[in-house]
Design goal:
7 helices; 4-stranded antiparallel sheet
């Protein structure tokens, strides 16, 4: 269960601290999404501009099995590179499943708890396996109505690098 990892739960179970006393011991940072927002909001001049969340080296069995299954079913080839990435929005079954996996819970909580500053968003997730057993996912919290995605930006950067290599 996810709550087993929260500081609140640990203080209750491990140290026997009553629930009402817990705020005296920890700040109001209960989820990874709270830490992400705390960092972003504190250092960004435009907190609502939070856009990308990347997860590298996924080893969680539930998440890695899900990514492997999606890549196996949907990937056009066995090329384990950026060119062979797959991107899904939350209207797809794959996008919904990836949002619910353990490595994406922070994104879900971020969108829920900070919706007033982030909305409207049309999240997309890109998955790939660049080095054989190093699954990755990149969440792009695209502002509603905006065109393009992380993959488009990366491709533009790659082609720009290739063009300048020829100079």
């Amino acid at each position: 269960m996810v709550k087993d990892f929260s500081p609140t739960y640990r203080l209750e179970v491990t140290y026997g601290i009553p629930t009402n006393d817990i705020p005296k011991y920890i700040p109001c940072l209960h989820q990874l999404s709270d830490v992400l927002w705390f960092q972003w909001d504190g250092y960004s001049s435009a907190p609502g501009s939070f856009r990308y969340y990347a997860v590298d080296g996924i080893i969680n069995k539930v998440a890695s099995d899900l990514i492997d299954e999606i890549l196996e079913l949907r990937r056009p080839s066995n090329d384990e590179s950026w060119a062979d990435r797959l991107t899904f929005d939350l209207n797809s079954e794959e996008g919904k499943a990836l949002l619910a996996c353990p490595n994406s819970i922070a994104v879900a909580w971020l969108l829920i708890h900070h919706a007033s500053k982030l909305r409207p968003r049309e999240p997309r997730v890109t998955i790939f396996n660049p080095r054989g057993n190093n699954r990755m996912m990149i969440w792009d919290l695209v502002p509603a109505g905006q065109q393009g995605s992380f993959g488009d930006v990366a491709e533009e950067a790659e082609s720009s690098d290739e063009e300048s290599d020829g100079d």
